[in-house]
Amino acid sequence: MEVSGRVRALLLLCWIFQGESQDVEIPNREVEVVKGQTVVLQAWYSPTSDISRNTVLWNFMANESKLVISYSNGELGAGSPEFRKRAGFSRSMPSANLSIYINNTQESDSGRYLCNVLIPGVPGLLGDLRLNVKVPPSPPVCTMTGSPVLNGNVTLSCKSSSGKPVPQYKWTKTAPMSEVFFSPMQNMAPKKRTRGTTRTLQNCNDEETENGSRIEDSLVKTAQAVKGKRKVSASEKTGKQSSSKEEETAERPQYSHWLMKSEPESRYENGIDVKFGIEDLKGLPNQTGCWDGVRNYQARNFMRDMKEGQQAFFYHSNCKVPGIAGIMKIVKESYVDHTQFDKKEVNYDASSKADKPKWSMVDVQFERMLKRFIPLLELKKIHLQHKTTDGPLKDMALFTQARLSVQPLTSDEFNFILSLED
Ligand SMILES: *[C@@H]1O[C@H](CO)[C@@H](O)[C@H](O)[C@H]1NC(C)=O
Ligand SMILES: *[C@@H]1O[C@H](CO)[C@@H](O)[C@H](O)[C@H]1NC(C)=O
Ligand SMILES: *[C@@H]1O[C@H](CO)[C@@H](O)[C@H](O)[C@H]1NC(C)=O
Ligand SMILES: *[C@@H]1O[C@H](CO)[C@@H](O)[C@H](O)[C@H]1NC(C)=O
Ligand SMILES: *[C@@H]1O[C@H](CO)[C@@H](O)[C@H](O)[C@H]1NC(C)=O
Ligand SMILES: *[C@@H]1O[C@H](CO)[C@@H](O)[C@H](O)[C@H]1NC(C)=O
């Protein structure tokens, strides 16, 4: 440190003499590092005399200049306290390579660094660079304002307490993906419509691609009383559709249990009440209905995997307290969803041809209510726990593929949820 008094005067001189010229070679004059990591500040020069007689000084030009490290008269000199034990020369000195490293970089290390070489009898050499220590953002804390109701406006504001540069959070809008469910009574052939209202069903789906890569399940779910159900001919059931079914099932895991979503509360979509809760299924003849109107490839494929006799949870969605209400049974395996061909249907799909139908449905029958309603929130808590404890609900599709209206469950998942009843 005795060096620094003498040196500072010299340094100033050098500064005046050298101006901005870079006699010390600095390959990278804008250096970035993430806080906590080690950074190497590279510098070297081409000596013309015995380098062991030269003095090397690295200074941090903060509000006042601080010595980072020095080499003089064959000795290393420690710098000011904040760099002591963190900074060192990369090469053993003396060396024409003046590079230094700084361990465990701090945000306050950001700034300008000067490297000086003082050579007896000749003007010194100088180089400088700028270090920018970036700080990863801390996890954001988000708050929501506004009223989270259908069509309501909400504002989500997120802020990280630290981070450099200051983190910006940006929200992007994705395509609409509301799930809309229609009650069976609304989907009967007009002359069988018992409620007497003529309704136009609006499909909220946008264009889907046959490759099925979309995971959003924007679907219109309609169910229909068994009595009003169109008879499906055997040729429609077999043939092309079943062969493509075999192809698909060959590549996917087989599931034995399911979860199917529907809305139990009245909600008007273009003047149509989309309500169809478990009580509505219970109220149908023989407590059986068909699950038509699904217009999402993934959900459809799961329905095509369903086997007669398998059980599915009836899940109440888009309501005050979403969750699992009861159990139903698959009583008829997938067959052609007739609503795709019916121009009067909102689910009408002009691109679907009768000889190669795109959409399928199954028949379900009410089996029983759960002994108690199991709310989504409860399942979510368990899911989060299970993710750390490797429990049975760790991968539950309800959370990993939340948007799907028809979801597979493993036996373990199904049985675990049943165990929550008591
Ligand atoms: C430099 O001075 C300013 C104002 O006095 C202060 O806020 C800042 O923390 C100082 N910077 C360093 C690196 O000491
Ligand atoms: C900096 O870190 C390196 C690698 O961890 C270590 O070898 C070196 O001794 C450290 N330097 C100082 C001055 O603590
Ligand atoms: C100087 O040393 C640094 C750190 O070891 C290295 O990255 C750089 O390539 C060296 N430069 C020369 C010219 O050898
Ligand atoms: C929500 O915001 C949009 C655009 O600013 C506005 O048109 C709409 O009326 C708002 N809706 C409500 C419920 O305030
Ligand atoms: C599948 O669909 C997505 C989204 O529409 C599209 O980006 C992608 O290119 C498609 N892939 C193939 C193989 O068609
Ligand atoms: C009602 O459902 C049961 C059990 O699935 C079935 O055996 C029976 O044939 C059905 N009855 C009618 C009238 O469809």
TrEMBL record:
Pfam families from the UniProt entry: EVE, V-set
Ranges where the Immunoglobulin domain occurs: 28-134
Stretches with biased composition (Basic and acidic residues): 233-251
GO terms for cellular component: nucleus
Signal peptide: 1-21
SMART domains noted in UniProt: IG (SM00409)
SUPFAM superfamilies in UniProt: Immunoglobulin, PUA domain-like
InterPro entries linked: 5hmC_binding (IPR052181), EVE_domain (IPR002740), Ig-like_dom_sf (IPR036179), Ig-like_fold (IPR013783), Ig_sub (IPR003599), Ig_V-set (IPR013106), PUA-like_sf (IPR015947), THYN1-like_EVE (IPR047197)
Residue stretches spanning the membrane: none
PANTHER family per the UniProt record, alphabetical: THYMOCYTE NUCLEAR PROTEIN 1
Protein's UniProt name: Thymocyte nuclear protein 1
